[in-house]
């Protein structure tokens, strides 16, 4: 079975600074990979996804993520954070054609002025 | 399109009471899921359905039952609520066809069991 680890529980970043959130997965082959964002009191919104091909994927809200097979990682980045990026971020993995995702525990991002 | 809706949004139960959470979708998706979200644990899959009339257990099914009598609805039942079931519950659907694969989430139901 697949599993997901988000090593950082909480990250604080200054507005305008760069952000990187880490995600490591365990799976025998290349799974489908996702990043979701959850604003307080809201549901989850898909930021970006990786299935195959170019290992650098672009998403919404200026986010990007890079798949590194050798490190079993799918880290999320944003060059310059805005106060509205304060939220909880979840990495998820799913085996192709299994139709069940496994989610990491989440990373809470706080943005300070 | 309303997407994925959940009823109710909030509920407080006493230990031992029962209730049903309703998830409805208007996107004609085959796959539907119930997750619970607890602090520090992410989302954990309770039950899921791959089509009308089908259900299957997920990671944490104990204490819950589900039914998918109609394609657009997925019901989550708690027969005898326990404080350990205090959580936020999310319903989701999945669109998977060809190179498309995306889950759509409802807004959540916050359940407190006292």
Structure in words:
The complex is a heterodimer of chains A (113) and B (114). In chain A, the strands form 3 sheets. In chain A, strands 2, 5, 6, 10, 11 and 12 form a 6-stranded mixed sheet that branches. Helix content of chain A is 0%, strand content 51%. In chain A, a hairpin with a 4-residue loop joins strand 8 (64-68) and strand 9 (73-78). Chain A is mostly beta strands. Chain A starts with a strand and ends with a strand. In chain B, the strands form 2 sheets. In chain B, strands 2, 4, 5, 6, 9, 10 and 11 form a 7-stranded mixed sheet that branches. In chain B, strands 1-3-8-7 form a 4-stranded antiparallel sheet, with no helix packed on it. Helices cover 0% and strands 56% of the residues of chain B. The mean pLDDT of chain B is 94. Chain B is built from no helices and 11 strands. In chain B, strand 4 and strand 5 form a beta hairpin. The A-B interface holds A 4, 6, 9, 32, 34, 42-46, 49, 51, 90, 94, 99-101, 103-106 and B 4, 31, 33, 35, 40-45, 48, 50, 58, 90, 92, 94, 96, 99, 101-103, 105-108.
Question: Would you kindly provide a brief summary of this structure?
Answer:
With about 110 residues, chain A is an all-beta fold.
Question: Which properties best describe this structure?
Answer:
heterodimer; A: 113 residues; mainly beta; six-stranded mixed beta sheet; four-stranded antiparallel beta sheet; 12 strands; globular; B: 114 residues; seven-stranded mixed beta sheet
**Overall mean pLDDT score of chain B?**
94
Please provide the count of β strands of chain B.
11
Helix content of chain B: under 10%
Number of helices of chain B: 0
Query: What's the story with the biggest beta sheet of chain A?
Result: 6 strands, mixed
Helical percentage of chain A: under 10%
Number of helices of chain A: 0
């Amino acid at each position: 079975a697949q599993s997901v680890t988000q090593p950082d529980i909480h990250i604080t970043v200054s507005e305008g600074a760069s952000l990187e959130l880490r995600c490591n997965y365990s799976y025998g082959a290349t799974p489908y990979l996702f990043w979701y964002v959850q604003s307080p009191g809201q549901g989850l919104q898909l930021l970006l996804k990786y299935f195959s091909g170019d290992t650098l994927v672009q998403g919404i809200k200026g986010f990007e993520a890079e798949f590194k097979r050798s490190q079993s990682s799918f880290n999320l980045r944003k060059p310059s954070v805005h106060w509205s990026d304060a939220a909880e971020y979840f990495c998820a993995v799913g085996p192709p054609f299994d139709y069940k995702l496994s989610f990491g525990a989440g990373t809470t991002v706080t943005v300070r002025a | 399109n309303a997407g994925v809706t959940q009823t109710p949004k909030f509920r407080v139960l006493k230990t031992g009471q029962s209730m049903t959470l309703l998830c409805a979708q208007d996107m004609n998706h085959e796959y539907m899921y119930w997750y619970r979200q607890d602090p520090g644990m992410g989302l954990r899959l309770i039950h899921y359905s791959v089509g009308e009339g089908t259900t299957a257990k997920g990671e944490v099914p104990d204490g819950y039952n589900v039914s998918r009598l109609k394609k657009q609805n997925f019901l989550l039942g708690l027969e005898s609520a326990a404080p350990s079931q205090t959580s936020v519950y999310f319903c989701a659907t999945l669109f998977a066809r060809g190179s498309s694969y995306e889950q759509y989430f409802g807004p959540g139901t916050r359940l407190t069991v006292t």
